[in-house]
Amino acid sequence: MAEPLLRVEKLVRRFGGITATDNVSLDVASGELHAIIGPNGAGKTTLISQLTGHLEPHSGSVSLGGRDITYLPAYRRCALGLARSFQITSLLLDFTAADNVALAAQAHAGTSFRFFANARKEKGLRDAAHAALDRVGLLHRADVVVSRLSHGERRQIELAVALASKPKLLLLDEPMAGLGVTESQGMVKLLQELRKEVSIVLVEHDMPAVFALADRISVLVYGRVIASGDPAEIRANEDVKRAYLGDQHVVTHHG
Amino acid sequence: MKAFTVSKAVTALMLAGLVLLPLYSQASGNIFILTLFTRIVILALAAASLNLIMGFGGMMSFGHAAYLGIGGYAVGMLAQEGVGSGFIQFPVALAASAIYGLVIGALSLRTRGVYFIMITLAFAQMAYYVASGLARYGGDDGLTVYKRSDFSGLINLSNRTQFYYLCLACLFAVIFLIWRIVNSRFGLVVQGLRSNEQRMQAIGFPAKRYQLVCFVISGMMCGLAGALLANNTDFISPAVMYWTRSGDLMVMVILGGMGTLFGPVMGAVVYLLLEEFLSQLTEYWALIMGPLLLLIVLFGRGGIMGLLGRLNRG
């Protein structure tokens, strides 16, 4: 089998006495949409933060395309083709939608130590921004300041920002969080399109969405991966059923 | 063509006033007003430089007056040692400011928020005490600059009008530079970092090096103001670096409107004119000035520029 795009090996991260990430290993193959699910407090966001470089693990390793990135700062990982969206929308609120996306494109288009030419008039950057906004269906809102956009629109811009950096791997931390039913459906449709172009790690609470989208699913409970497999396997897995019914003591006895 | 707005009209009026001031001074024989406005223009330049990091970059430096001292002492010390050429004094002033900014910035930018304010303040106070200890250059009492910077016939700094126009040209040049910078790639990154540092890191920008470069540029601009200030007063003392002077600069920026191109100029003009006018009325002028500033900050978010902007809509 070919080298996986993302390989996580025996990752451990503790907060005081709590082991939030407990010996997590997982592989994401190129072209795959890999979902990570688990109850609240299972350590999903902690795991994502270690993948993006916002948090350092205590042991274990993360490699991207065969290269060890365990201790690389976030901005270096981004240059290697890792992009993320935030669970809680994190955008430049006082910038327009197009500016937000264009900055992401700028980060990957040569040096930003240019002091004189007007960056908003750089055609390459604007075009990239408009293309990414078009991709998520928000081109008509390009020149609106983000603080005036709705929550759903901001979630879409999060995606456009991630796309503008032309990533190999997209880490999506609950892209449906706080979306209404129709908005969620729109997002699922959008992700179905995107997955054709880019590998995705998806952390999500919305189970129907996860089962509709994922090639593979890893289930995280108390920081451990208790099951990993395709949607049918996960649906049939007894441990997973118990975890979601709330009987988590049983689950923790398993490795 | 963009629409006419009140704030644009007021700004244009102010700039025209600054350009025409020497004519008025000559016609009316009022020399004092030219001296006063030379000082205002120089401090407006310092405020504009502070606005680059504070307003656009979100870096609340409480030690900006240190550069006024560094620029000033570069001129004063070189003059004392017999180097009177402005072609040497001014580049040295800029270089010294850049080095100070690089070192202080590299250390201060490890911190954020209140800590950043405190550490920049602490370094500026350190510079103040170092200057006080320079026995050879007057120590606490300061240093008289007997001869203004010599630009070998190109421009005569001892001529009031020429010197005023030199200061004004420097102010305009700096504002033009800031305008270009804030709209450049670099400027967008710095403003993005002010808005949301985590996001900027996540899309691939290492925050610190951009902020550090911005910090150094701003420091050099203020160092230029310092070199001009020493020429204006023919004197430099540690007092120009004292923390209250840094506070004055901050007030000018906030009063005029943070993160606007001409706000700091407006702020400097209003603040220093008020100071001048009120101090003639009463010895206790600060008692009137204080509440006045409070009112503007409380009710005029965005400073004078913010107020003017609302006038237009209201």
TrEMBL record, chain A:
Assigned GO CC terms: plasma membrane
Keyword set, alphabetical order: ATP-binding, Nucleotide-binding, Transport
PROSITE patterns: ABC_TRANSPORTER_2
Family annotation (InterPro entries): AAA+_ATPase, ABC_AA/LPS_Transport, ABC_transporter-like_ATP-bd, BCA_ABC_TP_C, P-loop_NTPase
Record CDD domains: ABC_Mj1267_LivG_branched (cd03219)
Domain of life: Bacteria
Biological function: Involved in beta-(1-->2)glucan export. Transmembrane domains (TMD) form a pore in the inner membrane and the ATP-binding domain (NBD) is responsible for energy generation.
Protein name, per record: ABC transporter ATP-binding protein
UniProtKB/TrEMBL annotation, chain B:
InterPro entries, alphabetized: ABC_transp_permease, LivM-like
Domain of life: Bacteria
Membrane spanning residue stretches: 37-54, 61-80, 86-107, 114-131, 163-182, 210-229, 249-274, 286-308
Pfam families to which the protein is assigned, alphabetical: BPD_transp_2
GO cellular-component term (any): plasma membrane
Locations listed in the record: Cell membrane
Recorded topology in the membrane: Multi-pass membrane protein
Entry GO MF terms: branched-chain amino acid transmembrane transporter activity
Signal peptide: none
Keywords in alphabetical order: Cell membrane, Membrane, Transmembrane, Transmembrane helix
PANTHER family for this protein: ABC TRANSPORTER ATP-BINDING PROTEIN, HIGH-AFFINITY BRANCHED-CHAIN AMINO ACID TRANSPORT SYSTEM PERMEASE
Entry protein name: Branched-chain amino acid ABC transporter permease
Species annotation: Bradyrhizobium betae
